[in-house]
Write a structure and sequence with these properties.
Helix content: 25-40%
Distance between the termini: 23 Å
Strand order of the largest sheet: 7-6-5-8-9-10
CATH class of the largest domain: Alpha Beta
CATH superfamily of the largest domain: von Willebrand factor, type A domain
Strand content: 15-25%
Number of domains: 2
Number of helices: 8
């Protein structure tokens, strides 16, 4: 079956870079086409890949379903599933996008440790099927470590990062989709994942939120967010992170939003530091933070490695319609299904 997925959804600089030697780590420089260049050739994407997560009413993964339990609708029309798997630990390439803006200062060490733990969980280093890369973003986005199956370079760089400046989240997502070394087989095997560790705020990008959503959808990327918004603080920009995740089939976890939810009297003990039942600097406070971070890491890593993968070829493709909507249904009651909302069948 023809699988024209790679260069159909990526900009020309990325396609060229995919031929680079494995030890090339320099940041690529996008090359603009000359004015006299021929028009872009539209290439149809013949096969659509849909990672799917199914959870029950308590948020637990439902991982014993079969192909017959799923239905996939493309523009409202049911499609024939041509490939289905529920195998755990499927190959992935994960982009870790680390917010190093000033807004992350308050709980910086917690999120720095969480990022290192995520890298070590999702890129174990002893299996070449799992790769990752690291992008930091403040006033600008920077490809800190290019795609590798060795977690150690990312761990070392994460340990040295310091928060400063603004936030260019959308530019970081665009960079992840266009300016890194590729792994053979993307985006079928391995699949493409982004994990954003930040609060969704952006005040420095040249790209827009809509452009970030579109480039992720065109590149068949699933976005997850580990929100750095802490209990007692409100950040409306988190909705941007939620949109990025939901449009691409991922989700956002907020490890420090409900740290005190299980602590008796957490809103009835006034203090100069705020309404914290667990005082800053105490073992109970540190334990509550650590527990929240652990649950967030477990949730993201568990979901990435416990997805169903469905592939199908649309029976009809309307060239006049740029974006095609997908709806995945499961023949069970009281379950939540997360999957990408759609795809672009043609190159931009």
């Amino acid at each position: 079956m023809l699988r024209v997925l790679l260069c159909a959804v990526l900009a020309l600089p990325l396609c060229a870079q995919s031929q680079a030697p494995a030890n090339q780590h320099q940041n690529p420089v996008p090359v603009a086409a000359p004015p006299s260049a021929a028009p872009s050739i539209k290439v149809q994407v013949n096969e659509v890949i849909v990672p799917v997560t199914v959870t029950d009413e308590k948020g637990r993964f439902v991982n014993d379903l079969d192909e017959k339990d799923f239905s996939v609708f493309d523009e409202g029309k049911e499609q024939k599933i041509q490939f289905f798997t529920r195998e755990r630990n499927q190959p992935v390439v994960v982009g870790f996008l680390m917010d190093i803006s000033n807004a992350s200062r308050m709980h910086w060490k917690n999120y720095q440790d969480a990022a290192i733990e995520l890298v070590q969980n999702l890129v174990p280093g002893d299996n070449p099927k799992f790769s990752g890369y690291l992008i930091s973003y403040a006033n600008d986005a920077e490809l800190v470590v290019n795609t590798t199956s060795d977690p150690e370079p990312m761990v070392q760089k994460l340990g040295k990062l310091k928060p400063t400046g603004g936030a260019a989240l959308y530019d970081a997502i665009y960079m992840a989709c266009t300016s890194r070394k590729l792994i053979d087989g993307e985006p079928i095997e391995p699949r493409r994942i982004l994990v954003v560790i930040g609060d969704g705020h952006d005040n420095s990008s040249k790209k827009t939120l809509d452009e970030a959503v579109e480039i992720a959808q065109r590149n068949l990327v699933t976005i997850y967010g580990v929100s750095t918004v802490a209990f007692g603080f409100d950040n409306p920009d988190q909705e941007n992170l939620v949109r990025l995740a939901e449009e691409t089939g991922g989700r956002v976890v907020s490890p420090l939003q409900n740290v005190y939810g299980d602590v008796s009297g957490y809103l009835s003990t006034p203090s100069d530091e705020g309404n914290y039942a667990l005082k800053v600097g105490t073992g109970g406070y540190a334990s509550a933070l650590a527990n929240g971070m652990y649950k967030a890491i477990e949730a993201v890593a568990g979901e990435v490695t416990t997805q169903y993968i469905i592939r199908y070829t649309p029976d009809t493709v309307d060239e006049t319609r740029q974006f095609r909507n997908i709806n995945v249904r499961v023949n069970l009651a009281n379950v939540k299904v997360r999957a990408r909302k759609g795809y672009y069948p043609f190159a931009p």
